[in-house]
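Per reviewer request, we include the raw input and output of the structure prediction for the construct analysed in the revised manuscript.
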Amino acid sequence: MAINKKSKVSTEIPTASMPDIVFMLLLFFMVTTVFRTSTGLDITLPQAKRIVKLEAKKNVVSLWANVEGDISIDDQLTPVKEIARVMYKKIVENPLIIVSMKIDQGADMGLVTDIQQQLREVNALRVNYTARYGD
């Protein structure tokens, strides 16, 4: 009695087209990726003779205020009375937060004082005033 040998089935995965697939995926992700930029409000920053750059952007919350009195915290329009509530939530999440205030040079100082008062209420005392470099 003769025993027939079974032929082995190939278990290899064809990899000849692998570089083409990887290149197409890489190209797809490069073309479709959108980097988020914070737009803020349309403002003109005051000039400063000396500036110091913040080290880490990770713990920074951007607060924008323009001439019309509009206030934006991290790209969300916020009324003055709501600044304390919004900042309290952010401070609870991350106690190392630095508030970067970008305020138009023509903005009313009363608005700036109101913003500062709201920040004091929630003990957000790490504040940075943003300016552009110039003489």
